[in-house]
Specification:
By secondary structure, the chain is of the alpha/beta class. The chain folds into two domains: 2-217, no CATH class; 232-351, 3-Layer(aba) Sandwich (Rossmann fold), CATH 3.40.50.720. 64% of the residues lie in helices and 9% in strands. It contains 20 helices and eight strands. The protein has helices at residues 2-29, 38-58, 63-75, 80-86, 88-105, 108-113, 115-139, 144-153, 159-170, 176-198, 200-210, 222-225, 240-248, 263-271, 284-289, 305-318, 334-340, 348-364, 370-377, 390-396, and strands spanning 216-217, 220-221, 232-236, 255-260, 275-278, 295-300, 323-328, 344-347. The strands form two sheets. A six-stranded parallel beta sheet has the order 5-4-3-6-7-8, with helices on both faces. Strands 1-2 form a two-stranded antiparallel sheet. A hairpin with a 2-residue loop joins β1 (216-217) and β2 (220-221). α1 packs antiparallel against α2 and α7 packs antiparallel against α8 (144-153). The N and C termini lie far apart (98 Å). 26% of the residues are buried.
């Protein structure tokens, strides 16, 4: 009966979170001006996390579980990257508190006294998680070498397992020694996690040779053949200028990624079938999450010179070799945008002058506008001029 109540509460909580995070919160953020208010987005994110923890606790579930489920649902929203970037400083604070609490759980004396046991447990976790991740990756069609590297990268114990172990110990499910072993193994695993990422590819190559998993095709190694190509065009800003770019090149089989802060413009880009990243292109964390490091070309159509210069510098730091095309709204900002790292500049004021001159030329010398031609050239306006009379037009000129 208790199990059924817990399962029912969990299902109800997930259903409630689904309604809030997939129906209510997106509609709220799509309202005019709401998403542009960065402080409001941060406040909504914090309220979502705290409210989810409170709701789970009110239903007799773990508050950590409620916050975890809420994070999963928020992570699937189109605003996830920007929300994560906005709460960067707060995330650092909470991570510090979290790992401090984990450190308080660790019994250093017990760890040193059972070092062999902890090392064996860490090795079992590493091998087991690597094998499981490798198997899942192979089932989804990933080739052997990247599958091994992915398994090694994800072989550490996650932070949520510590929360689960602590809750189990509090409920009397875990004995004290098992909790100490779990915490010690997790701490060792997290300490080794950066090295797992750094040495994942070399270790994967070594294991693939030992297990004869490396495949060679036309003299090209599998890892090289499967590496992503730099073929995408990133358009920062989907206003009239950005839409013109995408529409003009729509038939050229170019893969467009659109970065747009305005949710309404982002929805229009998504309706056209483009990959959309909703957020501020001037945010380093958000820009990194968009995958712009693999862009072949970045086109910046933001009208504000300050924002454009900031985005150019960020793109240059993430993707030094990427070609950057920039809209320069004012002549005086061109030099600064070039110094920031722009490759190609389109001076808006020059372009306007050229277009206006061309239209003026057409108007002055058009056969249908004899009066304007006479006014500009100083010739008298004929009283009974026929606009279709080529001799009359030639006399005016």
């Amino acid at each position: 009966m208790q199990t059924a109540r817990i399962v029912g509460s969990l299902v109800g909580l997930i259903a409630l979170f689904y309604v809030v995070f997939y129906l209510v919160l997106p509609r709220l953020l799509l309202t005019r001006g709401t998403f542009a208010e960065r402080d409001l987005v941060v406040l909504l994110t914090i309220l979502a996390g705290i409210g989810s923890a409170w709701a789970a606790h009110a239903l007799g579930l773990s508050a950590a579980l409620g916050a975890f489920v809420a994070g999963l649902l928020v992570g699937e929203s189109p605003f996830a990257h920007q929300m994560r970037a906005d709460i960067g400083s707060i995330r650092t604070l909470f991570l510090t508190l979290f790992f401090t609490s984990i450190g308080m759980l660790l019994d250093v004396h017990w760890l040193l006294s059972h070092l062999a046991l902890v090392a064996a447990a860490a090795l079992v976790v590493f091998m087991g998680k690597t094998a499981i991740t490798f198997g899942v990756a192979r089932l989804t069609g990933v080739s052997p070498l990247p599958a091994i590297a992915t398994g090694i990268t994800l072989a550490q114990i996650g932070e949520f397992s510590l929360i689960a172990a602590s809750a189990a110990a509090t409920a009397g499910i875990f004995p004290e020694n098992l909790l100490s072993l779990t915490v010690a193994t997790a701490v060792v695993s997290m300490f080794l996690a950066p090295y797992m990422v750094i040495y994942a590819n070399p270790l994967a190559n070594w294991l693939s040779k030992k297990l004869s998993l490396t495949s060679v095709s036309n003299g090209v190694r599998e890892t090289e053949a499967s590496s992503p190509s730099r073929c995408a065009v990133y358009v920062v800003g989907f206003g009239p200028a950005g839409r013109q770019i995408v529409e003009q090149l729509a038939d050229d089989f170019i893969l467009f990624h659109v970065i747009e802060l305005n949710p309404v413009s982002a929805r229009k880009a998504r309706e056209l079938g483009h990959r959309v990243h909703v957020g501020d292109g001037a945010s380093p964390d958000f820009l990194q999450d968009t995958g712009i490091a693999d862009a072949a070309v970045v086109v910046i159509t933001v009208p504000d010179p300050e924002s454009s210069a900031t985005i150019i510098r960020l793109v240059r730091s993430i993707a030094p070799d990427t070609r950057i095309f920039v809209r320069a709204r004012y002549q005086v900002s061109c030099e600064r945008l070039k110094r920031a790292g722009a490759d190609i500049l389109v001076n808006e004021e020059e372009m306007i002058g050229m277009v206006l001159a061309a239209k003026l030329h057409d108007a002055v010398f058009a056969a249908s506008d004899v009066a304007m031609a006479c006014a500009i050239t100083g010739a008298p306006v004929p009283e009974a001029a026929s606009i279709d009379d080529p001799d009359q037009e030639r006399d005016i000129r």
